[in-house]
Amino acid sequence: MEHHWKGLRVNELSPSKPQPSTASRTQAYVVWTAILASSMVFADGAIVTVAMPQMRESLQASLSEMQWITNAYALTLSAFLLLGGAAGDAYGLRRIFMIGIACFGLTSLWCGLSGSAGMLIAARAFQGIGGALLVPGSLALISAHFPKDARGKAIGTWAAASGIAAALGPILGGWLIDNGPWQAIFWINVPIAVLALWLCWRHVPESPAAETVMDWLGAVLAVAGLGLLAYGLTALGEWDSHRAIAILLTLAGAAVLGLFVLHEKRCAAPMMPLDLFHVSAFANVNALTLLLYFALSGALFFLPAALIEAHGYSAAKAGSVFLPFTILMAVLSRRGGAMADRFGTRMLLTVGPLITALSFALLAPAVFHGGYWIAVVPVMAVMGLGMGITVAPLSTTVMNAAPDERIGVASGVNNAISRVAGLIAVAGLGVVATFGFRQAALWASPEMADLFAQATFGAFPPMSASPSDGVKEIYAAAMIGGFGLVTLICAAAAGASACFGYRSAPSGQA
Known about the structure:
The chain is built from 18 helices and no strands. By secondary structure, the protein is mostly helical. The longest helix has 40 residues, at 20-59.
């Protein structure tokens, strides 16, 4: 593939060279179509956390069911992202991207029509598959239509807008929940999907497909391994779980994922080409992604529940704490992309995760205090600063480390790793949060700890209609104790990710 004027690969767009104004309009449509589509996926991962208390009450869901409403989506999204990236390269980025948008819109409608926890879990699983088909395509389409020296700014725009959507999701979701049924958080995706489909059909050109064979066995092994791992970790967090069975399922999931890696080594057309990891920049930036998104997903999953249950925040107020995170991430992501193009990624991928780690360390005392403006909002602003510096250089490094004909699968691998990190965080940190909850309750009152015997963080038993002030205080202390333990682990993981950021590229090299 050759790069021509204005960064456009003209041989991918049409047989004849378009005029510069046409090329510029095409690039703009590519970016904004990618933003619209991927924003639904990113927002849906966060918006559900705000709706957890209402969904739990409406659906009469158990702890494991509530976790699986989140994990079913994260499981299929993470497992099929690899297949989605490979499918885009094999059958055409635009075609697979549009199929993903249509699937996501239809399954969002299904989620809103679900009348039981089991049906919602199934709908969320299929929704994740739709997201897995469109997310790699959103980033790969941008990379296909921009040269390397201009990708940073374009990806920064995509990252900023997608970050805004992800952070505005809980705010909008909280408002919808406070003023209507929780189902509206899914129905709102339908008109967005229709608009994205129309824009892509009318204005985004197709990229040539590569001749390759799809790795269906790899997809089965990835889904099975991640499913067993997530189920085992989730079961470990339940008070009355059969620990031996939960541990065996967790180990079985790890073993199947090991088989997946062995299969990928021997497969002629692997869905996760392991040779990509031979490139130092690609390997290190994906290690950074795993640790940083583990920390981010874990902290943000438990944050709304902690504020709602411990301090009586409304859903809208709990969602609005994401606003400073949104604003700073939006402002800095685009600038971060331009800075990566000019100065390289090492500094940004080191400083950004360290600032984010600091925000996680400060989040526990902020939630303990409970003050909206004094405590929680400033810490979320620090988190937005750290992530805003990090996201665009991270995506730019991933795409620049891969050859042009494999940008779809490279995007799929990196997105899959971020989703796997979130899946493991939600499932695994539930164990940590439960332990912290129990210990804090025992410390506050052994008698009341017995009353909370069936409680697990994220799906607590409903309080009585008019609990005493003492019960409220003990309950809040237990919530904060569980959340505090989670944030300490998240801070450590984010801090460790900075080491891989430093190693991801030589100083001054993008």
